[in-house]
Amino acid sequence: MRLHVGCAMWTLKAWQGRILPHPLPTNERLRHYAGWCDAVEGNTTFYATPTRETVATWADQTGPGFRFVLKLPRTVTHDHRLTDADEPLRAFLHAIEPLGPRAHALWIQLPGSFAPADVPTLARFLRRLPTTHRYAVEVRHPAFFDDPRAVRLLEGVLTDADAEWIPFDTTAFFRSPPTSDAERNAWTKKPRMPLRTHALTERPIVRYLGRDDTVRTVEGWQHWIDVVAGWLREGRSPTVFVHTPDNADAPVLARRFHDEVRARVPGLAPLPEPIPVEPSPVEPSPVEPLTLF
């Protein structure tokens, strides 16, 4: 019985010297992040497919139980809309091979214009994917949340492919107006997604967006504590990603989420202990030269 938790990235300037040591070589940052969380969203793969050598360093820095949820390239999902995209998809699958089982799921994030009428395209795409990976789909068209027929249609296609539906819960974020620059920026960019808590597979994946105020973030995830605890009791193995607009405390919040679920499910395995962060050395103040008058 495992609950994996993580963030949208494994390094952030706001974490330096507090959550991650500073300075820290690029090829050590993921290793230190993996002491805090045991999963991470692979958002960067949406914009560019990494080299196979780069991916091999990711594997070297993480244990076999670490989970990557890697986003398919936008050339596949947005530019080609899941058709005639064999070459970029093949290159992506080749590049991520060094991760082995760490590649927990390949994340198919579809644009808001991808509507119920496009579901047959998704079905064909899923049927052609190699069975060596698990797949998870995130949709943003309102009909998939408002129209029961569209919900049934998508759930049927995903169930046939043993693929998960990833909810992006932004309800807590949009509950009240923004109060910081980061929140105001996110207010114009994040989708207003309805709440969905139904899992289709044994390995559900949740993306949760809170606020920069920790109290409001924790208040907003309480229903997920209940849902995730229930999934664990059913024998499922969920992964939850905690976001905030500035993400400054995201690893700490992810661990807190895990702790709150573990209080409900005592048999849940604990997270690893973070690698201690040594205080940054203090530079000595320069000595002013003595001036004689």
From TrEMBL:
Residues 269-287 have a biased composition (Pro residues). Residues 269-293 are annotated as: Disordered. Gene3D superfamilies: Protein of unknown function UPF0759. Pfam families: DUF72. It comes from the Bacteria. This is Uncharacterized conserved protein YecE, DUF72 family.
